[in-house]
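Hi C.,

You asked whether I'd gotten around to modeling the 232-residue construct. I have! Everything is below, sequence then structure, no commentary in between.
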Amino acid sequence: MEIVSSLCSWQDHLESVYTHQKSEGQIVPLRDISKDLFEDAIGSEEAATKIASCVCVSDDFQTAYLDVVCFIIGAANNLSEQHDLSKLANLTLALSRLPDARNETRRTIQLSFDYKTSEIGPGDIFVVGEGKIWADLPQLAVDLGDSMYGPTAYISDGLAEHWAEQKWTNLNTFAAYLISSLNDTPCPFDYLYLYTFRTITDSLEYDPKTEKGIDSLHSLRSACRWITIAGE
């Protein structure tokens, strides 16, 4: 099985974010803030504060917030350098530690995430279902779970085998970094433990020549990442 070193660099990912922002006429400067983060010009706490400030002053709060979630999930799929995924996880954790976002306008804002709709009155905290922005990072768990359906499924979707293995490793590395700092966030990331057991079981328990072991070799690096990050 061919192993590749990178699905894309953080520079490539940020350029795609910029292209999307420009085409949509959006104001959240995700590329510039994230560029400073990945270049170590600013830390994760400062980056999170700047991103949140831009989201909160946006004329379209929901779109601006979901663009942040989309950026995080896209980067977790694409970035394969371990230190970049660590920075991405630290940014995500920093966002979850921010003060509750409030509707600072004089109008009621309607939010709709994952088939749940909420009306946020002036001065109220942004809450969708039982999830607060920023503490619970609504929609992030749904989108991350939708991405982590496994290397065999990625291949079935048309992704080359080596890219499927790389994508699975990227996502599990990101998840492992989130779990490693579980005590430093109010966001409930403990559901990600499922992938710890899944990757280790897939890679060690089953013979890759059997039906149950179909993801065995594809999950080996992911399992190693979970173990090594847990030991850091």
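If it helps when you're writing up: The radius of gyration is 18 Å.

Thanks,
B.
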